[in-house]
Amino acid sequence: MANITKRVSWSSLCEDRAPGEGTALLDDTPGARRCRRQEFSGGSLFRIGRLSTIDLDEEVTSKEETLKQPNEIPHNEKLLSLKYESLDYDNIENQLFLEEEGQMSPMGFKCVEISRWVICGLIGFLTGLIACFIDIVVEIVAAYKYKIVKRYIDQFVVEGGLCASVILWAILNSAFVMAGSLVVAIFEPIAAGSGIPQIKCYLNGVKIPRVVRLKTLVVKVFGVICSVVGGLAVGKEGPMIHSGAVVAAGVSQGRSTSLKKDLKIFEYFRRDTEKRDFVSAGAAAGVSAAFGAPVGGVLFSLEEGASFWNQMLTWRIFFASMISTFTLNFFRSIYNGNPGELANPGLINFGQFESGAYKLYEIPIFICMGAVGGVLGAGFNALNYWLTIFRIRYIHRSYLQVIEAILAAAATATVSYILMYCSDDCQTPGEHQAVEYPLQLFCPDGQHNSIATVFFNTPERSVRNLFHNFPGSYNSLTLFLFTFTYFFLACWTYGLTVSAGVFIPSLLLGAAWGRLIGNLLTNSGVSIFADPGKYALMGAAAQLGGIVRMTLSLTVIMVEATGNVTYGLPIMLVLMTSKIVGDYFAEGLYDIHIKLQSVPFLGWEAPATSHSFTAREVMSSPVMCFNRTEKVGTIVDVLSNTSAKHNGFPIVSDFTTNEPGRICGLILRSQLIVLLKHKVFVERAQLKQRKLLLKDFRDAYPRFPPIQSIHVSQDERECTMDLTEFMNPTPYTVPQETSLPRVFKLFRALGLRHLVVVDNENRVVGLVTRKDLARYHLGKHGLEELQLAQT
Amino acid sequence: MANITKRVSWSSLCEDRAPGEGTALLDDTPGARRCRRQEFSGGSLFRIGRLSTIDLDEEVTSKEETLKQPNEIPHNEKLLSLKYESLDYDNIENQLFLEEEGQMSPMGFKCVEISRWVICGLIGFLTGLIACFIDIVVEIVAAYKYKIVKRYIDQFVVEGGLCASVILWAILNSAFVMAGSLVVAIFEPIAAGSGIPQIKCYLNGVKIPRVVRLKTLVVKVFGVICSVVGGLAVGKEGPMIHSGAVVAAGVSQGRSTSLKKDLKIFEYFRRDTEKRDFVSAGAAAGVSAAFGAPVGGVLFSLEEGASFWNQMLTWRIFFASMISTFTLNFFRSIYNGNPGELANPGLINFGQFESGAYKLYEIPIFICMGAVGGVLGAGFNALNYWLTIFRIRYIHRSYLQVIEAILAAAATATVSYILMYCSDDCQTPGEHQAVEYPLQLFCPDGQHNSIATVFFNTPERSVRNLFHNFPGSYNSLTLFLFTFTYFFLACWTYGLTVSAGVFIPSLLLGAAWGRLIGNLLTNSGVSIFADPGKYALMGAAAQLGGIVRMTLSLTVIMVEATGNVTYGLPIMLVLMTSKIVGDYFAEGLYDIHIKLQSVPFLGWEAPATSHSFTAREVMSSPVMCFNRTEKVGTIVDVLSNTSAKHNGFPIVSDFTTNEPGRICGLILRSQLIVLLKHKVFVERAQLKQRKLLLKDFRDAYPRFPPIQSIHVSQDERECTMDLTEFMNPTPYTVPQETSLPRVFKLFRALGLRHLVVVDNENRVVGLVTRKDLARYHLGKHGLEELQLAQT
C-alpha cells in the first residue's frame, strides 16, 4: 500500500505567494504570483515542451534521491499526494447524453428507476449473505479451536506443563493469522484493515485503485475470517462495510473485471455518479448487517458520502440496509434452528437493556466517561500514528508484514495466557449466564477463570457479557489488567496486514473500563449505582467515539444496537464529549490513516478563516486547453505527457497564442482516449464509420486504457478531431474573485472534479481541482497549506 | 389565507414556444421565442415604461374581472402563484461580509460555533417545554370534561332522557372548538392546520408570511389545546413541528417582532441561511417531542429542507432533538410523580411491542395492508381536496369558518354518541388494562361499552389501546363502524380553521381497520395469527403513509415510537407499498395543500424528461440590470414599479442600450432598500457619513420596509449610488445552453434564489428564479407547465 517515495518540497517554490492579496476585481493577470504546480503545469500548448523537461529532470533526480535516501520520512500529514485521481460526480451532459435522454420515454425512466430498486435489493441481499457466511464460518472454526485449546489446557493444568498449551495456542492462532495475512499481502494489499478509510475516500470522491474489485472482496472475506479466528484483537464489523461497497460496485455495473464477465445489463449505470449512489447503498447495507442498524447505515453513508441529499436515493439506501439486516437475520435464524425468528438483526447485538434505566444524576458521570474515552481514544490514535509511521518506514515488504502479523498473533495469545495465569478471579456461573467454554485453570471445582471467558469467546460475545453479566461477575483488578493490556494489543493490531476492523476491539476496551468504573461505583457503597452494565455500555460508546470520532451515525448505530431509544441522550452526550475532548489532542483514527496516505480528502466546509482566498489564488494555472476541432497529434502529445497528467481539458473558442480563449466546453481524458481508440477523426467521417454512442464510453468505463496502448500512426496524427459532440458544453464556472468557501461549496455540493475559473469575458484563466481545495486546512496555528507531491 | 383572485391565463401568450428547440450553441438571441412573464418583465431600463404600462392596464382589467366573476375557480393545482417570495439560502459574499469575516479571529469563529450549539440547546429545551405544557393542559382539561360528561351520561342512563347528555356533550365540545377557532380566525389564520405544509415550504425556500412569528405560536398552542379538548378528530403532534420552528426562528434571531423586543444578541445569525438551519433544528425538535423520535426528527428536517448535508449541522439538529425529547420526558416525569423516570420520550408512545414477534409469512399480509392504506389514504386525500376547493370558494369569511368548526365539533360528538348508543359491544376490563373513564351505558354491571373507550380517551391513548389491548377487546363490527365514521370525520376536520394535526387521526383510523383485519385473521381459526395488535400497528403505518406519503423519516418515526428496531422491515415495506399505491391515485395530503396554495415548491430533481429544455427557455428575460454606479432616481423608479416586483438585479459593466452588459455582481431589493434608507449616495460621501456596516442590514432583516415608505427628494434623485461594495460580486452563473436538470441541480443544491444566465461573453441574458423552475412538472401525460398568476 505504502511505497517509499521522495517528498518533493514545493514550499520554497511557493514562498513568494501572499494569501489574501490580489483580490482587485478587474485584475486580469491570472495566476501572476502563483507558483506552477505539476498537475496542470502544461498551460497553453507551446509551453509544454519547456515545462515537461523540467518535470522530467525532477523525476530523474527524485528517483536517484529515493535510492540514496531510503530513510527519509516519506509520509506525513502535511503532504498531499498527486497520485490519487478524483471521481467525477457531475454528469457529463454532452450531446450524446442529451440525445439518449431525449429518446427515452417516461416509461423508460420508470424502468431505470425500477432497476435501481432491484439492484439495491440485490446489494442488500448479497451483503447480508456475506455477513451471514463470515459469521457462521467464524463461529464454527472458532468453536473448534476453543475446544481443542481448552482440552489441552484442562489436561495440562492437571498434568503440569502448561507451557506446552500456551505454545499450542500461540501456534494455532499464528497459523490462522499467517494464512490471512499472506493472502492479503500477496494478492490484494488494499484488503488490509477495515476498509472504512478507503470507502470514506471513495464516497468523498477519491479514486482508490482496486478498492471495489471482486478479488478484494474475496481476499477480505477470507482474511477477516482468519484474523478473527486467529484471536487477534479485531472485529469483523468494519470489513462488512467494505464488503457491502464491493458488492454494490459489482452488482450495479453488471460485470466483473476479476471474473472477466460482462452480463451486459445495467449499462445505464456505468458512470461515476450512479456507481457512487450504489456504493453508498452497499456501505449502508454493510453497516446495517454489522450492527443491525439500518438507519445508522443510511446515516453513515450520508455522513461520508452524500453531497446532496436526495429523498429517493436515501429511501433506496434504506431499502438496501433493511434487506441486508433481514437477510442476515433470516439465514442466521435458520442456522440457529429457529427459522423466521427475527430478533437478532446484526452481527453484533448489545442485548436488551432495561428501558429508561438511567437516572438524571448519572448523566454527569456519563459525560466524564465520555471525556475519559476521548483521552484514551486520542492516546490510542497517537500511538497508532507513530506505529504507522514506523511501519511505512521499515515494514513495507510483504514478508515483513506477514511476520509482524504472526508475531502479533503469538503475542496476543501469550499475553492473554499470562493474564489468565496470573488472575485469581474465580466466578461461579450464574443461572442465566451460560459460559460456553469455561476454563477452570486453578479455580475451585464448579468455578471458572473470569478473564478466560473474555479470551475464550468471540469478541462480540465478550462485549455482550460485559454489558449484561450480573454485578460482581468481574473483579476490578481483572478489568484493569485487561484494559491495560488490551489497549496496547488493539493498538498494535490496527494497521497490521490483515483484514480486520477496529469497532469491536474499541467497544470491548471501552466496555472493560466502563465496567470497571461501574464496579467502583457499585462498591462505593452508594446504593443508587446498582448496575455496572450500563456503565460498560457508556464506556464502550466513549472509547469507540474517542477512536473513530463519528458523530450522528455512530450515535444511531449504538442506539440501534442497544435496541432502546431512551439511551439515545446519554449515548449522544458521551459521544459528543469524547469527540470534543479527543479532537483536542489528536484526530480520528480513520482521518489519521487517510492523511498518512496523503489522500486529497475534502471536508464539509472550507476552513472558516479562508474567506480572504479567492479562486485566483487557489486555481491551477495556466490551463491546458483544446480547440473544438483539434489536431490528433496535439491531443496525443498532451495526453502522453507523463509529467502533467491532466484529466480535464477546457474546450475554448477564439484560441490564440496571446490570450486565453473563451470557455465553450470541457472534455475528460477518458473521453479523449475512447475517441482516439475508435479513431473518430473528421477525415474518416466519409468512410461511413458508425457513429460513436454513449455505449462505447460505458463499455470502456471505468478502466480506460492508457494513452500508450493506443497506436496512432503518423498519418493519423495529421487528422483532426471534432470534440463538440462529446464535450460537456456547460461546465460550471466561477469568476476569479470568488472566495474559497464559495468555490468549495459549489465543488462539494455538486461533487465536481474540475471547476473552470474564468475572467469577466468568460476566458479560461484557471482550473480548480480537488487537490487545489484540499490543500487548505485549519491547523493549530490558523490556516495551513499542505504541500503537493508525487508520492 | 386564500383570497379569491383572478386566474391570469398566460398560456395563450406562450403558445408559440416549442420546447426543445433553440439549443444551438452559439445562438445569441436570448429569449427570442420566449414569452414575457410578469416577474422579470422589466428588462433593460429603457423598456420599463412601455411594459409597465401594459402590466398596469392588465392589473386594472384583472381587478374588474375579479369583481365581475367572484365564482370563478381561483385555485387549482395547475397554477403557480407569483405572490410568494423566496428565501435566499446563498450567502451574499459582498465586500462588507468579506471584511467582517477577515477581521474575525479563529477564536471568533469558535464563539459563533458555540453560540450555535447554545441556541440549538435552547430550541430543544423550549420546544420540549411547550410540548409538555400542551400535553399537561390537555390532560387536565380533558379529564375534567370526561368526568362531567360521564357523570351526566351515567345519571341519564338510569333516569332516562339521554338526549340531554348528548346536547351537553356537543355544547361542551363546540364551546372549546369555538374558542380555538375564533382565536385562529381572528388573530392568526396561518396558525390553522398542522403547520407542516408551511414548514415544508419554509425549509424548501419559500417565504410564507407570518409563519414563524411568536404570535402564531401563541395562537397555535391555544388553538391546539382547544381543538384536542373539543374532541375533534385531531392530534397535537403536527402542530408541535410548527411550534418548534417558531421557537427556533425566535431564539436564533434574539428578538421578537410581536413583543417588539430586540435582545441584541445572535446578530450574526440574522440572515436566511443561518435562520433556515435553526428552523430545521426547531422542526426536528418538534418531531422529536411529538413522537419521542429524535432521529426521525433529524431525518424529517433533512428530507424537507437540507439541500446540502453538513455533518456539524446535522449533529446540532440532533442535539436539539435530543434535548427536546429529554425535556418533555423529564418534566412529564415530574408531573407524573416519578421524577427522573425517562421511559416515555414523546407525546405519543406506541408502547412496548414484543421483540421480533412477526413471522416471515406475515410479511405478504402486511404488504397487502400497505396497499389498502394507500387506497384509503388516496381516497381521504381526494375527498379532502374537493372539500378544500369547496372551502376556498365558499367558506372564506372568518365567521363562516368558525361556524364550520363548531358544526364539526357538534357533529363529532353526536356521531360518536350514536355509535356508542347503537353498539352492544360490552367488555370486561382485563387485569392489566385499566380503563380510565369506563362508560357502562346499557352494558351489564362490571362491563363497559367498548366503543366509548375510544371516544372517552385522548386519541393517543386510544391508539395505544388498539395496539396493545388483548385479543377480543373489540368486536369486528365496532371496529368497522368506527373506521367508517371516523374516516369522514377526520377528512372533514382536516382543513378546518383550527390548529390541529392529521397524524393521530390517521394512526387511529389505521389502527382501527388494522385491528379489524387482525380480528378477522384471528377469528379465521388459523392459530398462527394470534395477536391483532401488530396488525393494528401496520394498519396505522399504512394509513398514515397513505395520507402523508413521507418516506424514510416516517419509517424511522414509527420505528422509534414503537421502540423496537425489528419492526423496521415490515413498517418500511408497508410504508413503501402505501406510498406507491397511493401515488398512483392521488398526491400526498401536504402536497395537495401546498399545490392548492399555488406555492412554487421545488422537488428533489427536475422532471426526468426535461433534458431537452435549456436555461434559455426556462429563464425570465429580458432582465432588469443596474450599473455599478447608478442614479438614485432610476433605482427608486425600478423598485417602485408595482407591476414587476423584481427582487434580484444583476449589476453589469459596459452597459449600453444596444446589447446586454457583462455580469459583475448581483444585488437584492432588500439591500437597495437599506442603502436608500441610509442615503448612501456618492455625493454625500464628503459629509463624513459613517460607513454602512453589515449590522445595518442585519437590523433591518427580515422585514425590510417597502420602497413607498422611503422618502427620496427630487434633489436626491439626481444623486448616484455606488453599489460595488454591497453587491455580491460573484453570483453563480450558467450559460444559456445548460439543460434544465443541470440548472435545477445547481439551484437546489446551493439553495439559490436567483441564477444569472449569461451568453458566451458573460453578458446577462436572463435570470432563473424559483418560479421558473417550479413551473415544470411531470404529470400523467408527460411534462406539464404550470401557469403563473398573481393570485
UniProtKB/TrEMBL annotation, chains A, B:
A GO cellular component annotation in the UniProt record: lysosomal membrane
Gene3D superfamilies in the record: CBS-domain (3.10.580.10), Clc chloride channel (1.10.3080.10)
Domain CBS: 727-785
Record flagged with keyword Membrane: yes
Source species, domain of life: Eukaryota
GO MF annotation list: chloride channel activity; chloride:proton antiporter activity
Transmembrane segments: 114-144, 156-172, 217-235, 278-301, 313-335, 363-387, 399-420, 486-514, 535-559, 565-586
Principal place of residence: membrane
Compartments, as annotated in UniProt: Membrane
Membrane topology, record value: Multi-pass membrane protein
Annotated keywords: CBS domain, Chloride, Ion transport, Membrane, Repeat, Transmembrane, Transmembrane helix, Transport
Family membership noted in the UniProt record: Belongs to the chloride channel (TC 2.A.49) family.
Protein name: Chloride channel protein
Species of origin: Scleropages formosus (Asian bonytongue)
Gene assigned in the entry: CLCN7
